[in-house]
Amino acid sequence: MSYEILTKAEIDTAIKQLDGWAVRTDSGQPALEKTYVFSGFNAAFGFVSRVALAAERANHHPEWQNVYNKVCIRWTTHASGGVTSLDLKLAQKSDAIAKDSGQT
Amino acid sequence: MSYEILTKAEIDTAIKQLDGWAVRTDSGQPALEKTYVFSGFNAAFGFVSRVALAAERANHHPEWQNVYNKVCIRWTTHASGGVTSLDLKLAQKSDAIAKDSGQT
Amino acid sequence: MSYEILTKAEIDTAIKQLDGWAVRTDSGQPALEKTYVFSGFNAAFGFVSRVALAAERANHHPEWQNVYNKVCIRWTTHASGGVTSLDLKLAQKSDAIAKDSGQT
Amino acid sequence: MSYEILTKAEIDTAIKQLDGWAVRTDSGQPALEKTYVFSGFNAAFGFVSRVALAAERANHHPEWQNVYNKVCIRWTTHASGGVTSLDLKLAQKSDAIAKDSGQT
Questions:
Q1: Could you give the strand order of the β-sheet that contains A70-75, starting from the edge strand earlier in sequence?
Q2: What's the pTM value of the predicted model, to 2 decimals?
Q3: Which of A38, A50, A54, C48 could form a disulfide bond with A43, CB atoms 3.0-4.6 angstroms apart?
Q4: Nearest-Cα residue of chain C relative to residue A46
Q5: Is D66 on the interface with A (CB under 8 A)?
């Protein structure tokens, strides 16, 4: 399944309806990025485990990093060269999981 | 580190202050048991991952089973032959994690 | 997607090509069961995490239990009332992951 | 527990006995860094889960990032301002887990 990349205007409209996501372009193609802060490593890793399952379910995987209680996630669609509706869907899913995972 | 087993009276008093834990003796030695229900497999597994980290931190591991959105946990101390203060501590920790993990 | 249950003869033929799987019927419907032993809790939980991802990918989840370095898995298809080709596929996948996860 | 930072010479000697680790200083203080490549996301995440358990056991957590089948780990001791014997120990532990986790 391929996904069409969203225009800059479409992305800007979409992330206004989300909380805390920004468009980053410094790794070569546009990506949605957000940093979550949790109560500690235990909660942060619970979030990571749940997003990993959601990613595997969707067969779409983030670029992410973790330092103790912080998790920074980027969603972008390499096959399409930018941000697609699938990235928006997984950004929303990430937010839903974070709310449920001891996000501070 | 070894832990003294609690008497039946001590366990009964302690689990009155917890929610939903019962003493089971059918696997040979007393154990604290509780079944948690989550919103789905994703949330159940986030809980499992976090309890695994807490167990590894304490070097004390549960007997547990999972079927989709349900996780049944037993805490007992094999080296002591029964329920100890360490089991109570991890039962409380399990409850704290569950509240933070989409428990229904 | 629904899956047809396999006949007893089909299951018997299939598990002869696998290693260590047995048909259990004590929880009401036939299920494939196997117990894996790992080098410790750390390796056992790595296996559990990987099977969880495979299960979520297939949207088909095991009944399983863990005690320290042992993981007992059952695959059965509730919607079909027995063992299906999907259970066989995930039994094979479990074996492949276990070989790659410090199985002793 | 605090750990003394190792001198540059001590680190250089130590990492010669490991495989593929380099000293990085671009995030402000010296850190040991290595990138592992796995057969896919499933194997990469099994490795991540196991290192998370080892980190929690040691109460010492990495800076790490994951993109699909790649995991880049950095070990440094913030409280000490550099690389300590604890970082070396966890670098070795990471290597041992990776060998056991479908590293390609």
A1: A22-24, A31-37, A70-75, A63-67, D63-67, D70-75, D31-37, D22-24
A2: 0.95
A3: A38
A4: C49
A5: yes
